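Cont'd.
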Amino acid sequence: MSDSFAVMIVVATIASGIRLATPFLLASLGEALGQRSGVLNLGVDGVMLLGAFGAYYTVLQTSNPYYGLLVGISIGLLIGLFYGFITLNLRAEQGVSGIGIYLFGLGMSDLFFQKFVGTPRPILPFMPLDIPVLSGLPVVGEMLFQHSIIVYIAFGLVPLMSFVLHRTTYGLNIRAIGENPEAADSLGVSVMATRYSAIIIGNGLAGLAGAALAIELGIFQQNLTNAMGFIAIALVYFGAWSPKGVMIGSLVFGMVQSIVLQCKTFGVIPRSASDLAAMAPAVITILALVIVAKRFKQPSALTKPYVRGG
Amino acid sequence: MSLQSENGTPMLQMRGITKRFPGVLASDNVDFDVRAGEVHTLLGENGAGKSTLMKILYGLYRQDEGEILLHGKRVDLTSPAHAIAHGIGMIHQHFMLVPTLTVAENVSLGLQSTRGIFSDLKTVSKRIIELSRAFGLHVHPDEHVWQLSVGERQRVEIIKALYRDASILILDEPTAVLTPSEVDDIFLIFRKLADDGRGLVFISHKLKEVLDLSDRITVLRHGRVTGYTTPAQSDRHDLAQLMVGRAVKLAPDKEDVESGDPLLTIEDLYVEGDRGRQAVQGLSLEVKSGEILGIAGISGNGQRELAEAIAGLRRPRSGKIVVAGHDTTLSGPRQIREMGLSYVPEERMKDGAVGEFDVKENMILLNHSKTPFCKNGFLNFKAIKSYSEKLVKEYAVKTPDIDTMTKNLSGGNIQKLIMARELAAKPKVLLASQPTRGVDIGAAEYIHERISQERQRGTATVVISEDLDEVMALSDRIAVMFDGKVMGIVDQKDATRESIGLMMTGEQQQSAA
């Protein structure tokens, strides 16, 4: 194997790892935001599925992937509003409600697919958005600067969310409410409004993650996400609730997936062991979680509904 | 009290405040006012309605009847934000701070930032330093709250209120967690704040502190005002009587008891805390029959770990514990109890009783698998019933019946229930942790009485308490714990609040010479 070929493979593997990391990153950023405000959402996967179907169907009808993204986000925002209502107004137990949202998303997305589409037809995926000059760079160009717009959006959200959390009053409110809602309430910060906003935005990002996945793959099918939403939740713990940590987690996960795919393509892993290899990302996530996540403390008020004077 | 404020309209008037909760009249036609420059105390037991009244003032609850006037004008306070805007600040008993944030972030929470949606911690920090200087608060804006001591956290709470230009400050049991010297410091600060023209509402049930700090005192009982007085007109006994509604013995009568053989010996004990920290470091103690040893100290200095080690709930790393002649260092809780230890734990609802069990079930919790309560694996309800009824009567536990869910009893009655169960075992060693914390004066009086009766019976008793008055009233000898070590042991008759207070902050005992 010549050196240049080896470089090509490495570059392709990393580029594909970044692409694979994107939906995880979007979903886990959203989940991290919600959890920072003290609300756990186990329904991410369901939201992703509905966002994915919405986006797929929209692109199928309009042939415009950007409309697909918008529809994906909107579906997420709507579910966020609904989830806020059941967890904040009705104060339903968050773990169970989240599973309800997941099952709802899993079933409804497939029902819609059977009803409105039936046989899978591919849709037009995103064109890579080459960044002028940078994309022409050798090696780095292909690795980092020849991706579709959604990849840039997702990674651009990382510093943005860090900034919002640490440099704005809104971010301060979120961090305070996730730790001690009584304190925030006693100073006149609305726990309800802040949590609503965090959940709605968080679910919007989950919807966007689903849309990104469907459009990137150019297809929809039953259970398209294959529990990616649950991995995204695990990545929040892995990333210790920080946008940067979540990004690192998503990248590790994407890279492992990409490497496994490459190994399969080149026959490094025998066909008979491919199912085992498919488990690798999940196994590595669990190991990483056990090692990393223990060291950090979750937001103190996570999953606890807030009742004044209660 | 300045003359000017006495003649002018009070800053705050609450008139005929009534608040009902399901089944409880929490506040019954209460009048209360505060003038500029004074400290007006609300004195009462837990559940007397002090907090309810102040939560109404702070906009957390709405009154059912009555009106609130600020500077003579009627106001409607619907939320804390609203109360803050009217210049009302509250120092909560359970600090309203976010440990993971810095001081400046905590202070700026909920404030309009000068830079729009972006936070402006620089301006906030500057002002914090100014306020801190002006009132001698020694607060640093960039420290994280989790790094601060309890006293420092309290001063952050004060800064929070001052930052919002509070002219009326509600101080909800502000000394509950402070050492005696910290209390002295904070009282100086409170006085300064009052002299500066603010009106302070001091909520407390500690009689000595109330007499030290107040200009005027209003006493509440069962939601009603039962007295109105000043420190010049009353002493501790008068106040206690107003609070409880009858004369109260503030310290149990103590007869001379000849102390006998040591029943509890601890030698060079090391115990680890929850986070692997050395919580108890080389501690040695000896308690004799017929003796009460009080352990004073600020909580978090290893008292909990020590108690758990003695009771067998936490395995010591090294050292030796001997209960009534048996080495119990590595024994489990049941074995240690069989050696003659009874244990009244600090957290009565977590470790002392099962809230979801009824009274009779909690009464037999230690003996539920023994005869006569258990026969061939079946519970013998007849025996359980008669035994529980006897104890409930003997220990004056106020409960509708023995089938009542324990969590529905008051704190004082739950504590009496636990005392009944523990003392019924006729212990050789009694270990009581915070026996009267959060308990009403009447029940506390009763519990103290029982503990000194145990002393006469020849029990070796250890009382761990943060309440210095309690330790001084009950003990024969007082040990002070700091950072896992005993700073010194003094005889009760030689003990002063000052000397013990110093040891609580880590000063070694002065040599007796």
